[in-house]
């Protein structure tokens, strides 16, 4: 029994010593793991001081403000129609020839009775203004009545874009004289702001504003263009790439992560100004030109974070 107790007593300390050695062995392993952690990989940028412009983008639809309606001048049959949709016509250009129904009924009977009478019963219908034929209602052989619409001519000189302007944005538009229009194919046109229509759409609360353009190419009606209107211009202001700016779920607080040494970044609350496509204005605080701001790897970092700064080549191998 004494031998057994001696064995247990001897085994107990041996086991405890073994546990102590195990704990001692595990500690260096943990310290080794901490030494391997070099921080979150990030890339950095610096603030720029340049001009930022904030634009409003609205839609404008092409339209002809003035249209002329070509109408029949008698009851009869259209003998010829030298017209087609899209054709450009001048003032006084013949468009249709119309034979009255009386002339078709009588035929050559009058000439047989009296050859001195020059009666044909054929009328020529001419264009009363220059422009494009945007609508054709009849063709050769059709019977038409006096005053019936035959075609529609859109006056080329009345071509404009009608801007759908929300009423609350009037101060940003009506004080300007020129705007830039961008067509769906990327073509850019300079436009001059003209008349403001005296009515507002009851549903959308938008008001039509006439924009006149000067172009040598023909633009179809009902084409939707984008209109860029300068809302705010900030010369020589402090800005950062949009990716550098962080915010909360409600987008009420904004901050950036600033590098304070080679391996540590801290949260810096900021106040933002206007935004462009890829940059954002920083109103406060004022950063030094040498301050390094995290631009990638910054999302989800704590207020103070260990980081590893990489070059763009390392971040995008």
Can you lay out the helices and strands and say which pair or pack?
Elements: H1 2-36, E1 40-45, E2 48-64, E3 67-71, E4 76-81, E5 88-89, E6 94-100, H2 101-106, H3 109-113, E7 122-126, E8 131-136, E9 143-144, E10 149-155, E11 159-166, H4 170-173, E12 178-182, E13 188-200, E14 206-213, E15 224-241, E16 246-247, E17 254-259, E18 264-275, E19 279-284, E20 292-296, E21 304-309, H5 312-315
Parallel strand pairs: 1-21
Antiparallel strand pairs: 1-20, 2-11, 2-15, 3-10, 4-6, 4-9, 5-8, 6-7, 8-10, 11-14, 12-13, 12-15, 13-14, 15-19, 16-17, 17-18, 17-20, 18-19, 18-21
Q: Supply the number of helical segments.
A: 5
- Largest sheet geometry: 13 strands, mixed
Question: What is the total domain count?
Answer: 3
CATH topology of the largest domain: conserved putative lor/sdh protein from methanococcus maripaludis s2 fold
The CATH class of the largest domain is Mainly Beta
Helicity range: 10-25%
The CATH architecture of the largest domain can be named as Beta Barrel
- Regions with little confidence, pLDDT below 50 for 5+ residues: 1-35
Distance from N terminus to C terminus (CA atoms, Å) equals 72 Å
Radius of gyration: 41 Å
Outline type: rod-shaped
Return the string of H and E elements. Answer: HEEEEEEHHEEEEEHEEEEEEEEEEH
Decide which structural class fits the backbone.
Answer: alpha+beta
Please characterize this protein's 3D structure.
This protein is of the alpha+beta class. The protein folds into 3 domains: 40-54 and 234-315, conserved putative lor/sdh protein from methanococcus maripaludis s2 fold; 56-63 and 158-233, Efflux pump adaptor protein, beta barrel domain (Elongation Factor Tu (Ef-tu), domain 3, Beta Barrel), CATH 2.40.30; 73-147, OB fold (Dihydrolipoamide Acetyltransferase, E2P) (Beta Barrel). Helix content is 17%, strand content 48%. It has helices spanning 2-36, 101-106, 109-113, 170-173, 312-315; strands at 40-45, 48-64, 67-71, 76-81, 88-89, 94-100, 122-126, 131-136, 143-144, 149-155, 159-166, 178-182, 188-200, 206-213, 224-241, 246-247, 254-259, 264-275, 279-284, 292-296, 304-309. Strands 1, 2, 11, 12, 13, 14, 15, 16, 17, 18, 19, 20 and 21 form a 13-stranded mixed β-sheet that branches. It has a 4-stranded antiparallel β-sheet with strand order 3-10-8-5, with no helix packed on it. The longest helix is centred in the N-terminal third of the chain and has 35 residues, at 2-36. Residues 1-35 have low confidence and may be disordered.
């Amino acid at each position: 029994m004494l031998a057994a107790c001696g064995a247990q007593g001897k085994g107990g300390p041996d086991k405890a010593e073994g546990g102590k050695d195990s704990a001692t062995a595990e500690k260096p392993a943990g310290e080794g793991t901490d030494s391997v952690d070099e921080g979150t990989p990030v890339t950095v940028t610096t603030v720029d001081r340049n001009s930022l412009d904030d634009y409003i983008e609205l839609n404008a639809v092409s339209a002809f403000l003035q249209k002329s309606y070509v109408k029949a001048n008698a009851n009869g049959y259209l003998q010829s129609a030298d017209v087609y949709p899209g054709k450009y016509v001048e003032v006084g250009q013949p468009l249709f020839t119309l034979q009255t129904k009386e002339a078709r009924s009588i035929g050559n009977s009058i000439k047989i009775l009296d050859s001195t009478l020059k009666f044909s019963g054929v009328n020529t219908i001419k264009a009363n203004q220059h422009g494009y034929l945007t609508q054709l209602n009849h063709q050769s052989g059709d019977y038409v009545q006096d005053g019936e619409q035959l075609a529609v001519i859109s006056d080329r000189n009345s071509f404009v874009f009608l801007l759908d302007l929300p009423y609350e944005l009037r101060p940003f538009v009506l004080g300007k004289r020129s705007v830039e229009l961008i067509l769906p194919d990327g073509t850019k046109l300079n436009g001059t702001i003209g008349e403001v229509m005296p009515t507002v759409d009851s549903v959308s609360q938008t008001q039509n504003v006439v924009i006149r353009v000067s172009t040598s190419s023909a633009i179809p009606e009902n084409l939707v263009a984008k209109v860029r209107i300068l809302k705010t211009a900030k010369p020589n202001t402090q800005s950062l790439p949009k990716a550098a700016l962080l915010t909360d779920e409600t987008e009420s607080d904004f901050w950036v992560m600033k590098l304070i040494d080679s391996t540590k970044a801290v949260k810096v609350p900021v106040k933002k100004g206007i935004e462009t496509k890829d940059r954002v204005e920083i109103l406060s605080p004022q950063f030094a030109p040498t301050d390094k701001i995290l631009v990638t790897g910054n999302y989800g970092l704590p207020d103070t974070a260990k980081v590893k700064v990489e070059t763009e080549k390392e971040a995008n191998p």
